[in-house]
Structure formats: structure tokens, C-alpha cells
Amino acid sequence: MRRASALVASLALASAHAASLDPARAARIDADVQAILARTHTPGAVVAVVQDDRVVYRKAYGLRDRERGLAVDTGTPFEIGSITKQFTAAAILQLQEAHKLDIDARLATILPDAPHAGEVTFRQLLSHTSGLPEYLEGDDVEAWASKPHTFDEIIARVAGKPLVFAPGSRMAYCNTGYVLLGRVIEVVSHERYRDYVRKHLLRRAGMTHTATVADEPHLAGMAVGYRVDHGRSERAPVIEDSVGGAAGHLVSTVDDMIRWSRALARGEIVGGASVRLMTTATPLAEGSADYGLGLFVDRVRDQPRIGHTGGSFGFTSANEFFPAQHVRLVALTNNTTSPEPGETITNAIFDDLFPAIAAAADTPVADEPAPVTARIKALFDDVQHDRVDATTLAPKLAAKMQAGLAHRLAALFAPYGAPTRTLYKGTRTERGLEWYDYVLAFGPGSRLAFSIGLDDAGRIASLSYG
């Protein structure tokens, strides 16, 4: 379990006028960032490294507007998508500190008419453990989300749908919970969500360059968002401010992201007890989630990590803190693809800063089963190309693949390209299957855990990835 005290003690940032990385390490970072931008067809980015409370690297790359040939600078605003959620979580915790709500109370105490309001708590909404269905899904989601909608129209997309699972039993990332929390903030505070955030969060943190999607037409130097479609980069639509809302409508700069992290860690936004809630993994009926309240609490390269990524129709971002190394990595990009350029960049920079940790994580386990490795490679190639070899699959999995799963996986994995390495990570028995765990590497910062479960007949009965 990661200790929030480490976050509080180590996140506080000193002046942005800081020492620099050694030239060799800076050169590695620069090369990797440029390689990732080229590989993902991302026009531009801004990245920052904060080591031991000092900004030691900050650099802008590429174009904020490709059509007009306008360059990114370190003050360029980008949409930060779901990083907005930590602001929403902090606002809810401020209201709890003011004794205006209790995060363990039911949603019905504030929004009695909301879907499943009597079954879910504010804590479950904050931690993605509510089991509510997702409002941002469906074949129409892009066209629908590009137009303004009222709160009632947004909630109508999930009204009448059953819970996906019993509240508190497991975690599934859900934007719906945060839209509801945004409305809770408005009802309790008697302020519009955006006004509450500006007054009680942004001003306290000294964030003078953070706004919302609705403000984009008036923001000097605003980046244009792009997406990759069939291997080609094109302008992306803009998510409507009212649709993203408390789940993801903020626009910010890399320096304002650093200011936010500094203020949160120093207790200038919420108290230490609330910071610990945000940065502690949420208990489940069995085990714990990899999410606190508004922040992921997970591991990368087997190292503790606390932070969040963000993605909208044309942007990806990452704001990640590694408490064991006392380092914060921030990346803002103006492209949406898979794997996300924002998190890929922060992963690559971590490897560049700590090559021994990266090398250890990329060491395969002994006694690799060569025939299974060959099957993993063949399966992943089939998945990327939307092919189904039913002879290698158990009947249930073959049916799922032929019914559309293969097509969905192809859309997800094709942009990764061919793996550069296939790393064997061990074997385990689980749910009556013999599982073989691998990590697929695709270049700087890009790793994918990929496992297959074989049944007694040696057929692939299940697969997992992440």
C-alpha cells in the first residue's frame, strides 16, 4: 500500500527556475519523446520533469496547429480530459470538510431522482466502484458528445439501465459518477461547477492559465486536437463543455498542472486526511481497486505511481507522481490514439530517468515455454489484423471473437504496430485455466501486458490485457 504521507512530503514543488538534467539524460528523453510523437502521428506536446521538488526539464515539441504551422510553446493550453476528475474529487472533499456532505452517504441524500441514487454512495462514485453504467459509450457517442446537452439529457442515457455490478464489489472506470458529482457540487454549494472550481480550487493553487472547453475559442495559443483514423492524422471534433463537465472539461498548461500538484500536496486545497483518501487505494469486497478518490493508485515498472491520465477527442495527457523516486512527470499532447501518447511519454521518461529499474522490469522469467510464446505472437498478430483462427480457440471464446470481439480488439491494438519484444513473465493457475503471462514491448514507453488462459485441451479459452 502506498503511503499518502510520501505524497504530502515529496510533492511540494519549489520554484520553476530549477537545475537541469545532465545532458546525456536530457538527450535520451528528447529522442524518445520525438520518436513517440512520430510513431503516434502526434503533432505536438509539452513535457515536464519535476525531481526532488525542482523542475529539471521542461520542453515543447512540434505544432499546436498543424494546418497553420503554429508551434507549441511551454505555455500552450491543452485539454486535460479526465485529469479534471481530481479537481472534482477535491471539491467534494472540501464540501465534506465543511460538513456539507458525507462521502459515505447515499447519492439520494442530494440527488434523490438520479439513477440508483439509493444504492450508491459518493465514495463509490469517486472511486469508480458504483457499478453505474457509462454515459459516454455507444455508436453515436462522438456525434452526441459534440453537441450541448443538459444534465437531464446526459443522465437520460443511463436512466433505466441496471447496475453493471453490485456497488463496492469491484471497480470499473465510469464517467457517469463524475457527472453526478459535478451536479452534487452545484446543489450543495449553490454555485455552478465551473465557478466553484475557479473560486475554490484554481485560485487557491495559483492556476491562472486553466479554463474549460467552453473557453477554447478565446484562449491565446490554444492547441488544436487531432486524432488518427485509418493511419492518418486529422482534426478531431471538440467535446462539448456541458458533456465533459466534471468528468473532463478542463483545459490547462504544464506549469498549471505542476502548480495544482504542489497546492494539493501542501494541503492548500484540502487537508491531509482528504489527501490520504485521494491517494489510498479503495478497498473492495475482495482486495482493493487501483484507484483512490480522483487519482489512480497503481504501479508501473513495479514502482508505485499516483496520478491520472486524460483523454478527449483530440488530446491525451498524463500527470504522474512516483513517490519512491520523488519524481513527477507531466505530458500534454494534441492527439488521440492507442496507446495514448501522454502516458506513453511519461512511461518513456521514467525509463530514461531510471534505466536500471526499466531493465529489471524487462527481464523475462526463466524457462520460457517456446511453443506458447509462438502462440502468443500468432494470436496477437491475428488480433491486430481482425482475424480469427477458431481452431486454436475454445468454443466460447471463438464465438465471442466471431461475434465482434475480434473487430473491437483490432481497433484497439492495430495502432500499436508489431511488438519489438515478447517477454515471458510466468505461469499461474486461475479459474480452472493455465495462464501464461507476457509483456509485449513496442518501443519507448509502450508496454502491454498480454496473457492467455489454456483449457485442459490446450485451447485458448480466455485472454487478458492491460
From TrEMBL:
- Top-level taxon: Bacteria
Q: Which residues form a coiled coil?
A: none
The residues the entry assigns to the signal sequence are: 1-18
- Name the keywords, alphabetized: Signal
Protease keyword on record: no
Q: Which SUPFAM superfamilies match?
A: beta-lactamase/transpeptidase-like
The protein's name in its UniProt record: CubicO group peptidase (Beta-lactamase class C family)
